[in-house]
UniProtKB/TrEMBL annotation:
This is Tyrosine-type recombinase/integrase. It comes from Paraburkholderia sprentiae WSM5005. Residues 38-147 form the Core-binding (CB) domain. InterPro entries: CB (IPR044068), DNA_brk_join_enz (IPR011010), Integrase-like_cat_sf (IPR013762), Integrase_catalytic (IPR002104), Integrase_recombinase_N (IPR010998), Tyrosine_recombinase_XerCD (IPR050090). Keywords: Cell cycle, Cell division, Chromosome partition, Cytoplasm, DNA integration, DNA recombination, DNA-binding, Plasmid.
């Protein structure tokens, strides 16, 4: 009688027999290991342990590692540390249609079940092409780290790595200057008759300033504070303001706090009854809830504010006639990350040095201890101040 295949369980509750736990995986490293992992589950946990302070990244990385581990064991009948290049090609096709659905897909579609619920499943349905690419990119990062740690002998995905072909050499998810002007115009026209409306308007204007002028991610707005604004003198003795941001992956970067950004900061702080300039180490969140609370807003709450503004601005645009329908539709698709892409695109359009755009957005690590880079920072601040403006 054939043994029934168990239902998928989350990695933290998964118990595997010796033949499937990776003790004897055919791709196990033979040299000195940098981690104490004995099984594949241990190795994955060691990889994920670096990300516990960045919840969104941790959840996404755990999800993809968990899916692959479960597929390897339950579908292929082999440990993850025995997967080959060919296996991973099969897995990518599996992501497009996880079958059998009863085993892999949650009943009820996107209605999430708790991880300790027997009805929990690792998928909610087939993955789109972009989600498949993201999944394989995350797994490539995992395999590369496990090789570096000495746990695996090789990365079965490294043979698949090819530079993506770009059909269009430009970022698609951004607002054109004309559409960005529509958003600013809508924000300026938001109602301000009651104290709550005035406070909400001030918050929206400051939030959009941070996302656009600073190029901040929505998570960075929620996790950093006003006390991270500071000033220092440049080579000519001129005082310049900066915002030290703890960003994605725990990386720090310096964002030029332009004269325009500092003016908007002062306006927002005075609207909240605070001094115009923050004090060093001040714990006030970058964006505050309505009312007296000084607690930071969640990522979801910030995202909701931005989406509501885009949606309302789109409605205002659509009300002007059918000629504006396509632009309104595009605006309704926009999210907070579009503002970050818009910032980068508009800076490049203004001929700001692309190396400075890269550093402003945190696409590369920033070193502040070198005098040479210190001078380069000052030039970056000056050029950003001159060429990247919000112009409310």
């Amino acid at each position: 009688m054939k043994t029934a295949v168990p239902a998928p369980r989350p990695i933290d509750a998964l118990e595997l027999p010796a033949g499937l736990d990776g003790h004897h995986g055919t791709n196990r490293g033979t040299g000195h290991m940098q981690v104490a992992a004995v099984t594949d589950s241990d190795a994955i946990r060691a990889w994920l342990a670096r990300l516990v302070d960045t919840k969104t990244t941790f959840d996404n990385y755990r999800k993809e590692a968990e899916r692959l581990l479960l597929w390897s064991v339950l579908q292929m009948g082999k440990p993850l540390s025995s997967l080959t290049h060919e296996d991973l090609l099969v897995y990518q096709h599996f992501l497009a249609d996880p079958q059998p659905a009863a085993r892999w897909t949650a009943d009820g579609g996107r209605n999430k079940q708790p991880r300790d619920d027997p009805r929990w499943r690792p998928f909610y349905g087939p993955l789109s092409a972009s989600s498949q690419r993201q999944a394989m990119a995350i797994l490539n990062v995992m395999f590369a780290w496990l090789v570096q740690a000495g746990y695996l002998a090789g990365n079965p995905l490294s043979l698949s790595r090819q530079r993506a072909r770009r059909a269009r050499p430009r970022i698609v998810r951004y607002l054109s200057p004309e559409l960005w002007l529509e958003v600013k115009t809508y924000i300026q026209g938001m109602p301000r008759e009651t104290s709550r409306e005035r406070e909400h308007h001030a918050r929206v204007r400051w939030l959009f300033t941070l996302l656009y002028l600073g190029g901040l991610r929505i998570t960075e707005v929620g996790s950093n504070t006003m006390g991270q604004f500071f000033r220092r003198g440049d080579e000519n003795g001129k005082e310049r303001w900066w915002l030290e941001v703890m960003g994605k992956g725990g990386k720090e970067r310096l964002v030029p706090a332009t004269a325009e950004m500092m003016m908007e900061l002062g306006t927002y702080r005075r609207a909240r009854g605070l001094p115009a300039l923050p004090s060093p180490g001040e714990e006030t969140p970058l964006v505050l809830p309505i009312g007296q609370s000084l607690r930071p807003l969640t990522r979801a709450a910030l995202h909701r504010i931005v989406k509501e503004v885009f949606s309302d601005a789109a409605g205002s645009l659509r009300a002007r006639g059918d000629d504006h329908a396509l632009r309104a539709d595009r605006l309704e698709q926009a999210s907070a990350h579009w503002l970050r892409h818009s910032a980068g695109s508009h800076m490049a359009d203004q001929q700001l040095d692309l190396r400075l755009v890269r550093d402003n957005l945190g696409h590369a690590s920033l070193t502040t201890t070198s005098q040479y880079l210190h001078v380069d920072d000052d030039r970056r601040h000056r050029d950003t101040d001159e060429k990247h403006r919000i112009d409310w």
